[in-house]
Amino acid sequence: MNLTIMSYNIERGFHSRDHTLERQRLEAAQRAVKSVNPDLLALTEACYGGPNSQNIVMDYAELFGFPYSHFGAFPKFGPRRGDEGGNCLLSRIPMQAETVQLVHKSAVRARISLEDKILTIDVIHPSPSVTDAKK
Asked: In which element (H, E) is residue 13 found?
């Protein structure tokens, strides 16, 4: 079985620092993802993928046309102590996914059955303020 996996850092969930949607970036990403047509799409900095104090909702599964998704929210993070951060995994294949809490952020871990094998995939965006040894 051939499997295409794509990872995309969508910086603040396509929003500016003041939480304004930057539609041009979203549309460019949608075109890029459509041209690759991945089976799995890992999104880092997938802000607003779950409940947050900004009341902004980004349904990444709908925006990118995937039937399965899992958003793993970060605890309050960064200099502004925001609660909108996280990672997201989108899949065209059924998956069992969970959020794994790490020291500074969180990750998404998924298990996907592929014929006679199980694929385990982690989506993580290490903190730039943490040393490489701690990462």
From this structure: helix 11-14
Residue 81's pLDDT band (boundaries 50, 70, 90)? low
Cβ-proximal residues to 79 (8 Å cutoff; 6+ apart), any chain? none
Residue 74 backbone phi and psi in degrees, to 5 = -85, 155
Q: Residues 69, 42: contact at Cβ < 8 Å? A: no
Structure tokens at 28: 């460019």
Give phi and psi for 67, each to the nearest 5.
-80, -20
pTM of the shown model: 0.91
Within 10 A of 79 (CB to CB), how many other CB atoms are there?
6
Burial tier of 97 (Cβ tally within 10 Å: 0-12, 13-18, 19+): buried
For 68, the token pair is 């399965």
